[in-house]
Input
Amino acid sequence: MVSAPAPVDILLVEDDLGDVWFTRDTFEYYKVGNALHVVNDGVSALRFLRRQTPYEDAPRPGVILLDLELPKMDGRSVLAELRADEQLRDIPVVVLTNSQDEVDIIRSTSLGASAYATKPVDFDRLIEIVRRLDDFYLTVIRTHAT
Output
């Protein structure tokens, strides 16, 4: 009998408090069993991932949900740094942003984004994205990594 994969931690890098609330609420509604950690700027994201002050005890996320438009360091720069870092480059990054600009999509993909999704405008669309993340990244990737 195959047991269900253990939940993994998810890092949401998002500065819009409404989007953070919306994402948390959707995870709760959908009963996603994965822990959601939130930082609100690019510098904090890298500190969290590198376990630097004040995130020394931060877990290694199994997936990063990354907004592109962030204070202190934008998501494109965060993604570039992640892919250049041997310790972090293998973490799947889903760009979750308002931008539908083809340049952002191409650049995110060339920087190594695992997926690119525009932020949903409704609850049902976010649930669908969360469900697909749960099914693919948090089950398929986790299962193959163990």
Summary: The beta strands are 10-13, 36-39, 63-66, 93-97, 115-118. Residues 10-138 form a domain with the Rossmann fold fold (CATH 3.40.50.2300). The chain is about 45% helix and 15% strand.
